[in-house]
Amino acid sequence: MHEVERAAFEGMVARAVDELPEAFRERIANVEFAVEEWARSDDYARVETPPSSTLLGVYRGVPLTRRGAGYHMALPDRIVIFQGPLQRMARGDDDLYERVRHVVRHEVAHYFGISDERLREIEAY
Questions:
Q1: What's the pLDDT tens digit per position in 61-85?
Q2: Does residue 35 lie within any of the structural domains?
Q3: What predicted TM-score, i.e. pTM, was given to this entire model?
Protein backbone atom coordinates (compact mmCIF):
# COMPACT_ATOMS: atom_id res chain seq x y z
CA MET A 1 0.00 0.00 0.00
CA HIS A 2 1.24 3.45 -0.89
CA GLU A 3 -0.72 6.52 0.19
CA VAL A 4 -0.36 10.06 -1.14
CA GLU A 5 -2.22 13.29 -0.47
CA ARG A 6 -5.27 13.97 -2.66
CA ALA A 7 -3.49 16.86 -4.42
CA ALA A 8 -0.56 14.59 -5.35
CA PHE A 9 -2.93 11.93 -6.66
CA GLU A 10 -4.86 14.52 -8.69
CA GLY A 11 -1.50 15.64 -10.09
CA MET A 12 -0.82 12.08 -11.24
CA VAL A 13 -4.19 11.99 -13.00
CA ALA A 14 -3.51 15.35 -14.68
CA ARG A 15 -0.07 14.15 -15.79
CA ALA A 16 -1.55 10.95 -17.23
CA VAL A 17 -4.07 13.01 -19.21
CA ASP A 18 -1.35 15.37 -20.43
CA GLU A 19 0.71 12.38 -21.59
CA LEU A 20 -2.06 10.90 -23.73
CA PRO A 21 -1.11 10.78 -27.40
CA GLU A 22 -1.92 14.13 -28.99
CA ALA A 23 -4.24 12.55 -31.55
CA PHE A 24 -6.48 11.36 -28.72
CA ARG A 25 -6.01 14.28 -26.35
CA GLU A 26 -7.11 16.84 -28.93
CA ARG A 27 -10.33 14.87 -29.64
CA ILE A 28 -11.43 14.78 -26.00
CA ALA A 29 -14.12 17.38 -25.43
CA ASN A 30 -16.69 18.03 -22.73
CA VAL A 31 -15.06 15.56 -20.32
CA GLU A 32 -14.12 16.24 -16.72
CA PHE A 33 -11.45 14.13 -15.04
CA ALA A 34 -12.09 13.66 -11.33
CA VAL A 35 -10.77 11.74 -8.34
CA GLU A 36 -12.98 10.02 -5.80
CA GLU A 37 -11.95 7.79 -2.95
CA TRP A 38 -14.07 4.73 -3.87
CA ALA A 39 -16.67 3.67 -6.44
CA ARG A 40 -20.37 4.25 -5.76
CA SER A 41 -22.96 1.49 -6.01
CA ASP A 42 -24.31 2.94 -9.28
CA ASP A 43 -20.79 2.70 -10.75
CA TYR A 44 -20.87 -1.08 -10.31
CA ALA A 45 -24.31 -1.22 -11.96
CA ARG A 46 -23.06 1.00 -14.82
CA VAL A 47 -20.26 -1.39 -15.68
CA GLU A 48 -22.26 -4.51 -14.80
CA THR A 49 -19.73 -5.61 -12.22
CA PRO A 50 -20.57 -7.15 -8.85
CA PRO A 51 -19.96 -4.85 -5.86
CA SER A 52 -17.51 -7.43 -4.49
CA SER A 53 -15.08 -6.58 -7.31
CA THR A 54 -12.66 -3.66 -7.30
CA LEU A 55 -13.23 -0.71 -9.61
CA LEU A 56 -10.21 1.48 -10.27
CA GLY A 57 -11.98 3.99 -12.46
CA VAL A 58 -15.21 4.60 -14.33
CA TYR A 59 -16.47 6.52 -17.34
CA ARG A 60 -19.75 8.27 -16.55
CA GLY A 61 -21.07 9.50 -19.84
CA VAL A 62 -22.17 8.76 -23.37
CA PRO A 63 -19.40 7.31 -25.55
CA LEU A 64 -18.67 9.14 -28.80
CA THR A 65 -19.93 6.13 -30.77
CA ARG A 66 -23.39 6.40 -29.17
CA ARG A 67 -23.92 10.12 -29.59
CA GLY A 68 -26.53 11.11 -32.11
CA ALA A 69 -27.52 14.38 -33.75
CA GLY A 70 -29.45 15.36 -30.62
CA TYR A 71 -26.39 15.20 -28.40
CA HIS A 72 -25.53 18.80 -27.62
CA MET A 73 -25.67 21.23 -24.71
CA ALA A 74 -24.93 18.27 -22.41
CA LEU A 75 -23.20 18.46 -19.07
CA PRO A 76 -19.62 17.18 -19.21
CA ASP A 77 -19.01 13.46 -19.10
CA ARG A 78 -16.82 12.37 -16.20
CA ILE A 79 -13.89 10.05 -16.02
CA VAL A 80 -13.37 9.21 -12.35
CA ILE A 81 -10.24 7.60 -10.97
CA PHE A 82 -10.61 5.92 -7.57
CA GLN A 83 -7.76 6.75 -5.24
CA GLY A 84 -8.44 4.20 -2.48
CA PRO A 85 -8.09 0.95 -4.42
CA LEU A 86 -5.18 2.20 -6.51
CA GLN A 87 -3.24 3.17 -3.39
CA ARG A 88 -3.94 -0.24 -1.85
CA MET A 89 -2.39 -1.93 -4.88
CA ALA A 90 0.61 0.38 -5.28
CA ARG A 91 4.14 -0.28 -4.04
CA GLY A 92 5.49 3.26 -4.37
CA ASP A 93 5.10 6.52 -6.27
CA ASP A 94 6.24 5.15 -9.62
CA ASP A 95 4.02 2.08 -9.35
CA LEU A 96 1.05 4.21 -8.30
CA TYR A 97 1.56 6.57 -11.24
CA GLU A 98 1.77 3.68 -13.74
CA ARG A 99 -1.47 2.27 -12.36
CA VAL A 100 -3.16 5.68 -12.58
CA ARG A 101 -1.87 6.10 -16.14
CA HIS A 102 -3.25 2.71 -17.16
CA VAL A 103 -6.68 3.45 -15.67
CA VAL A 104 -6.85 6.90 -17.29
CA ARG A 105 -6.09 5.37 -20.69
CA HIS A 106 -8.61 2.59 -20.09
CA GLU A 107 -11.41 5.03 -19.24
CA VAL A 108 -10.51 7.32 -22.14
CA ALA A 109 -10.89 4.26 -24.38
CA HIS A 110 -14.46 3.90 -23.09
CA TYR A 111 -15.08 7.56 -23.94
CA PHE A 112 -14.08 6.72 -27.51
CA GLY A 113 -16.49 3.76 -27.46
CA ILE A 114 -14.00 0.95 -27.02
CA SER A 115 -15.43 -1.89 -24.92
CA ASP A 116 -13.62 -3.99 -22.33
CA GLU A 117 -13.96 -6.94 -24.68
CA ARG A 118 -12.21 -5.03 -27.48
CA LEU A 119 -9.48 -3.85 -25.08
CA ARG A 120 -8.83 -7.50 -24.22
CA GLU A 121 -8.72 -8.42 -27.91
CA ILE A 122 -6.05 -5.82 -28.63
CA GLU A 123 -4.22 -6.77 -25.42
CA ALA A 124 -4.59 -3.32 -23.90
CA TYR A 125 -5.59 -4.78 -20.54
A1: 989 888 887 777 788 999 999 999 9
A2: yes
A3: 0.91
d(CA 98, CA 16): 9
The CATH code of the domain that includes 110 is: 3.30.2010.20
SS3 string, the chain, reads CCCCCHHHHHHHHHHHHHCCCHHHHCCCCCEEEEEECCCCHHHHHHCCCCCCCCCCEEEECCCHHHCCCCCCCCCCEEEEEEHHHHHHHCCCHHHHHHHHHHHHHHHHHHHCCCCHHHHHHCCCC
Structural domain span for residue 36:
6-64+72-121
**Does some domain include residue 1?**
no
Query: Mean pLDDT in the chain?
Result: 92
